[in-house]
Design a protein that fits this description.
With 160 residues, this protein is mostly helical. It contains eight helices and two strands. Helices cover 65% and strands 9% of the residues.
Length: 160
Amino acid sequence: MSSAAESATTGFLVWRLSMKWRVAVDRALAPLGLTHAQYAVLASLYGMGRSGLRPSQRRLADHTGLEALYVSKLARALEGAALVARTRDPDDPRAMQLTLTEHGHEVTARSITAVQGLLDQLLEPLGGQHGPRAREFARDLAVLLDAPLDPRTDDEEHQS
C-alpha cells in the first residue's frame, strides 16, 4: 500500500475503489456498447430473471441502489437497443415490468464474463475471488451496505 493510501481516510479509499471499478467496467464493456450503469441494470435483471422474477423499475432501482428515475431512463435506452422489454405490470398499470430480450441475454452473458475477469484481477491481491480474504471482504462490504446512512444535520449530531 502506498504511503498516500495509508494516510487516506476510509471514505476516500471507498470512493477511489468505486471510481477505479466503475472506470474499469466502463472500459471493459465499451466494445459491447454498454456503460457500468447499464450493466448494473442488465446483470440485475439477469439474476432476478433466473430466480423467476419480472421486477418493476422501482424494484430494480431498490435492488441496484440506483435512483428510480435513472433506472427508468436506462431501461428506455436499453429497450431502444433491443436489450430489454418493458411491459405494463398487470397488477399495477402505473408500473413497468422489465425483462431481458433474447439479444439482451446474449449481451448480458458476454458482459458478465468480462466483468468477472475484472473481478478476478481486482481480488487477486486478496487471494482471488474464492479465497478466504475475499469472502471476508465481501462480508465486510455487506455489513457496510446494510448500515443506515442518513446524513444528519449539525443540530442532530449535537443532540446525540
